[in-house]
Design a protein that fits this description.
Structural class: mainly alpha
Strand order of the largest sheet: 1-3-2
Length: about 180
């Protein structure tokens, strides 16, 4: 029996990764500029540190409410038979849980309205989604959709290590969770 797998990237995020922020909310244009700047840095870093191929096309970045991110994820899951893939991050204690999503067909990274890019944890979310963009643009092949997650988590963990952190300390993602989230079942 052949099962259809929906590419859903599950990333458990610790409450500390998206707390009520002490700093004032940045204007959206400032946050967008931060994301654009970080994408260039991340692209170069992915080539040198994770040995991914260089790509010239950057993804679009859009910001959305958690409710809208959840709608997009569900829409893509329903369209998965047509080749749409989604990745979402789920946060314990978070109302809807969705904090980021990569839309393969639109070549767009959707980030939560709460994303500022000021913390290593926030930046690592963009790293994770950028890996999916590179995978998409270079048409990388995988055993199953969930296998895409291995490289995305590896890159995210390496990014966090630059700041003395890891997936477990920043997002409470232990090795077993990583295994389950990237295994072909």
């Amino acid at each position: 029996m052949c099962r259809k797998f929906i590419f859903v990237c599950v990333l458990l995020v610790a409450i500390v990764a998206s707390p009520l922020r002490a700093e004032p909310m940045q204007p959206r244009s400032s946050v967008t500029a931060t994301a654009e700047r970080l994408m260039s840095e991340i692209s170069d870093w992915l080539v040198s540190s994770v040995e991914l191929p260089s790509i010239s096309e950057r993804p679009s970045v859009e910001f959305a409410s958690e409710a809208r991110l959840e709608e997009l994820r569900q829409q893509q899951s329903a369209d998965s038979h047509a080749g749409a893939d989604a990745s979402d991050k789920l946060a314990p204690g978070n109302r809807s849980g969705a904090i980021a999503l990569y839309d393969f067909s639109r070549r767009t990274i959707f980030l939560s309205d709460n994303w500022t890019g000021t913390s290593p944890a926030d930046q690592s979310i963009l790293v994770h989604e950028m890996v999916h963009h590179v995978q998409n643009m270079t048409k990388m092949k995988f055993e199953c959709p969930m296998a895409r997650e291995k490289l995305a988590y590896k890159a995210q963990n390496r990014w966090l290590a630059r700041f003395g952190m890891d997936l477990e300390s920043a997002f409470q993602i232990d090795p077993f969770t990583l295994l389950v989230n990237s295994a072909c079942m």
